[in-house]
């Protein structure tokens, strides 16, 4: 069993547990992770090949973001882990990931790119003295370029990212076959007036515009936020961004984009109203097109769920007790790939993604999945597997039941799917045993 299969079957961060206390297998996994010829980039690239196949002919949203992997304090520092978070007291690694999501249904297609790194080298010089290529922010440009390279056979590609990616070079140098949706953070200078080229500020410009319409939306629950129905006021406008005054002499003087401004019309109880300023390369000329931009941006939540799956939601990667940062980087990359399978099951559980079972499982697994389903089904309607056989939703129902879900309360999350996958692999192993193996 390869490391990826072991991670999917028994998600966790303990090598001995992954090897099922098989000493030979434990040594095999350890040697793999300590092999200098193995790189995190190669692990991610192999996963991207599979993603490219599954994305063929589909409209794809690539959601990208960065997460900190906290691995301790003084001890981690002594082992060579760099600072993360504010103040530098915590030490660990950083993971930047880009996930491909089906734009039509939100189903997770696969991993497009993953970069894991350890901060070393001391304090950096002032940001204005460094080019984008010399900064960590280069990761946003790299993953966008990687998405264009990997997803050449997709029908369309839109890369979505949050405020940290609001970088002029990111907006100016996006690949021609790729669209962007970036939540604005910088109140940039813009040109207004075709003849006089008057200079205004981005936020004050959009604030001065009349509403173009309103949207009624359902805002899902999130940590610290209850689900609610709400009304959003919408404004949109073409904008021409001016090049920053400092450290950008090699960049284009202007970039033409569209700004879509979304504001919740009332303040929710116990929380802040939503206010998104979205910069996009997509044309927006009416309220329907503005709604589409909002829908695509909301798919960004998939990457937050993905990071949760790698941490407390399933793999507990931050509990790994690995002293060598280079070995930990390789393990984090392997977990980044394996966590996609759990995410795919979570997203497919309601049958809305339309994905096939073979996007996660081997073709030979279908007979086992169907046999388990027949055993697990109960007498009540809610204990029936109503999804089509051969669909990923059908398999997700089985895995969730194996993970302890009873079909009645709540929806199965990554922990339940992780436990269910472990149980499934044990059943699969038993089903393949013959008398000659006993």
Can you tell me about this structure?
The protein has 438 residues and is of the alpha+beta class. It folds into 2 domains: 40-320, Transposase Inhibitor Protein From Tn5, Chain A, domain 1, CATH 3.90.350; 349-433, no CATH class. The protein has helices at 3-9, 15-18, 23-34, 40-54, 74-78, 138-150, 168-172, 202-207, 287-298, 301-310, 325-348, 365-376, 392-402, 414-431; strands at residues 59-72, 82-84, 90-102, 108-117, 156-161, 179-183, 189-192, 198-201, 213-219, 228-242, 254-264, 275-280. Helix 7 links the parallel strand 5 (156-161) and strand 6 (179-183). It is globular, with a radius of gyration of 24 Å.
Q: In terms of topology, how is this protein built?
A:
Elements (H helix, E strand, L loop, with lengths): L2 H7 L5 H4 L4 H12 L5 H15 L4 E14 L1 H5 L3 E3 L5 E13 L5 E10 L20 H13 L5 E6 L6 H5 L6 E5 L5 E4 L5 E4 H6 L5 E7 L8 E15 L11 E11 L10 E6 L6 H12 L2 H10 L14 H24 L16 H12 L15 H11 L11 H18 L7
Parallel strand pairs: 1-5, 5-6
Antiparallel strand pairs: 1-3, 2-3, 3-4, 6-12, 7-8, 7-10, 9-10, 10-11, 11-12
Helix pairs in contact: 1-11, 4-11, 10-11, 11-13, 11-14, 12-13, 13-14
The tally of structural domains comes to 2
Number of helices: 14
User: Count the strands?
Assistant: 12
* Portion in helices: 25-40%
The CATH class assignment of the largest domain is Alpha Beta
- Strand-residue proportion: 15-25%
Overall radius of gyration: 24 Å
Question: Oligomeric form of this entry?
Answer: single chain
CATH topology of the largest domain: Transposase Inhibitor Protein From Tn5, Chain A, domain 1
CATH architecture of the largest domain: Alpha-Beta Complex
Structural class: alpha+beta
Overall pLDDT level = 87
Largest sheet, strands/sense/barrel? 12 strands, mixed
Shape, principal axes of CA atoms: globular
CATH superfamily of the largest domain: Transposase Inhibitor Protein From Tn5, Chain A, domain 1
List low-confidence stretches.
9-13, 18-28
Query: Kindly, what is the distance between the CA atoms of the first and last residues, rounded to a whole number of angstroms?
Result: 19 Å
Q: Helices and strands, in N-to-C order? A: HHHHEHEEEHEHEEEHEEEEHHHHHH
């Amino acid at each position: 069993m390869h490391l990826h299969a072991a991670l999917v079957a028994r998600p966790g961060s303990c090598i001995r547990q992954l090897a099922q206390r098989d000493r030979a297998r434990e040594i095999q996994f350890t040697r793999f992770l300590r092999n200098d010829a193995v790189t995190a980039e190669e692990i991610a690239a192999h996963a991207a090949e599979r993603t490219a196949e599954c994305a063929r002919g589909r409209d794809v949203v690539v959601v990208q973001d960065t997460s900190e992997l906290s691995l301790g304090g003084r001890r981690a520092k002594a082992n060579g882990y760099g600072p993360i978070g504010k103040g530098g007291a915590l030490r660990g690694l950083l993971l930047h990931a880009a996930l491909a999501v089906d734009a039509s249904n939100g189903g997770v297609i696969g991993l497009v790119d993953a970069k894991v790194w350890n901060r070393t080298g001391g304090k950096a010089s002032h940001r204005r003295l460094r080019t984008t290529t010399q900064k960590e922010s280069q990761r946003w440009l790299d993953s966008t370029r990687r998405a264009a390279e990997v997803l050449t056979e997709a029908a369309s590609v839109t890369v979505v990212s949050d405020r940290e990616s609001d970088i002029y070079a990111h907006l100016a140098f996006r690949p021609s076959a790729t669209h962007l949706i970036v939540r604005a953070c910088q109140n940039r200078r813009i040109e207004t007036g075709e003849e006089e080229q008057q200079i205004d500020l981005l936020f004050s410009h959009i604030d001065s515009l009349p509403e173009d319409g309103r949207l009624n939306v359902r805002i899902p629950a999130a940590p610290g936020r209850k689900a609610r129905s709400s009304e959003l006021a919408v404004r949109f406008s073409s904008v021409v961004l001016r090049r920053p005054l400092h450290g950008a002499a090699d960049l284009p003087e202007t970039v033409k984009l569209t700004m879509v401004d979304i504001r919740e019309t009332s303040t929710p109880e116990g929380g802040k109203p939503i206010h998104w300023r979205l910069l996009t390369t997509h044309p927006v000329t009416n309220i329907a097109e503005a709604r589409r931009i909002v829908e695509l941006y909301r798919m960004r939540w998939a990457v937050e769920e993905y990071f949760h799956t790698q941490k407390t939601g399933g793999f507990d990667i931050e509990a790994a007790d690995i002293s060598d940062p280079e070995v930990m980087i390789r393990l984090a990359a392997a977990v980044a790939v394996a966590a996609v399978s759990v995410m795919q099951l979570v997203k497919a559980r309601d049958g809305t993604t339309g994905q096939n079972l073979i996007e996660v499982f081997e073709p030979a697994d279908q007979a086992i999945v169907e046999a388990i389903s027949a055993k697990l089904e109960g007498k009540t309607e809610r204990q029936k597997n109503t999804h089509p056989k051969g669909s990923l939703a059908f398999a997700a129902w089985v895995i969730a039941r194996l993970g302890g879900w009873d079909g009645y309360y709540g929806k199965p999350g990554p922990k339940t799917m992780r436990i269910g996958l472990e149980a499934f692999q044990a059943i699969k192993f038993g089903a393949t045993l013959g008398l000659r193996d006993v």
